[in-house]
Write a structure and sequence with these properties.
By secondary structure, the chain is α+β, with helices and mostly antiparallel strands. A four-stranded mixed beta sheet has the order 3-2-1-4, covered by helices on one side. Strand 2 and strand 3 form a beta hairpin. Helix 2 runs antiparallel to helix 3. The longest helix has 23 residues.
């Protein structure tokens, strides 16, 4: 087997983008990978920096979307809620929608309503 590229993946290696080699000393291909590395071969990370960022963005947006879904019921016309609480909920949902625009995104915390409201993100509770 001629090794041209090696990438870390799931506790083993992917060779030439098509062969998974588990990290097992008794495995002949694993020993070949270890020799290739010892001879100066460069092992690529499992995920590129771009892929890691994409994953973080997707997770943060999913967290935000879940909080939006949790608060959908408060906007139903006949839901029993005070006008003050309704305005707070609308402001909270606006905060959620704008999270991706934060300069620190995706390294931001997605606050729940009670924490957001307590911290005065809505102009004071």
């Amino acid at each position: 087997m001629k090794i041209e590229s090696v990438k870390l993946q799931n506790g083993g290696y992917v060779i030439n983008d098509n062969l998974f080699v588990p990290a097992a000393e008794g495995n002949r291909d694993y020993r070949a990978v270890q020799k290739w590395i010892a001879d100066g071969g460069n092992v690529e990370p499992e995920f590129s920096e771009e892929k890691i960022l994409q994953n973080k963005v997707a997770k943060k947006k999913a967290e935000r979307d879940a909080k939006l879904r949790e608060t959908d019921i408060y906007l139903v016309a006949d839901f029993p809620i005070s006008s003050e609480k309704l305005e707070q909920m609308k402001s909270y949902r606006e905060y959620l929608r704008h999270i991706p625009e934060d300069e620190k995104f995706p390294e931001v915390e997605v606050l729940g309503f009670e924490v957001w409201n307590k911290e005065g993100e809505n102009g004071g509770a």
